[in-house]
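Q: How do we represent a protein-ligand complex in a form that can be generated token by token?
A: Start from the inputs.
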Amino acid sequence: MLIFIGESSSSHVSPLSARLSNLNEVLIISGQNQTMKIDSHDSKGHAVVILFCLLALLMLSFPTHGEELVDATATYDTNNVFARILRGELPAEIVYESKFALAFHDIRPRAKVHVLVIPKGPYTNILQFNQNASDQERLGLMDAIARTAEIMGVDESGFRLISNTGQDGGQTVPHLHVHLLGGEHVQ
Ligand code: 5GP
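Then emit the structure tokens for the protein with guanosine-5'-monophosphate bound:
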């Protein structure tokens, strides 16, 4: 196997890029001005090339979650993903539903129990909810959180509630949601 590490001669090399040259002969991996060439003619080189291609495919099928952060002052976007779940346009694994709120499993759970509880009304975040929601809606959200904790069996073991708000809070979906995390010691 031939491995070459040296200065990249091309000024067009992206921070991490790779290409196959001479049809499966040499895999060139470039990053940080370093270039690695792997000769795929021998069996080890072949295996490395296959492994690299599989890794590239994996990276393509699991895109990084670099979602845009929501501004705390943003007006409500009626096409956000949770609004679409509420309208039944997108599926969700529902845990609890009432007149005022919906609770469903997070698509990327970060704890054994990870449920999102949302009001049914059009509120971007807790601030807008506090300013504009009726008393019934406020009670409805609180009640839905408590009912969800009971249904998920974490009302005795305990749980954590988080509602990310705005840019610094790391909010990615512009519909008020409360993360309910539990089922284990939450880190
Ligand atoms: P945030 O970062 O805004 O506090 O949380 C948004 C949460 O929504 C994330 O934990 C993310 O996994 C979850 N999420 C994003 N899109 C969907 C979806 O289509 N379905 C469900 N169930 N959860 C989603």
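The chain has two domains: 3-61, 81-182. The radius of gyration is 24 Å.
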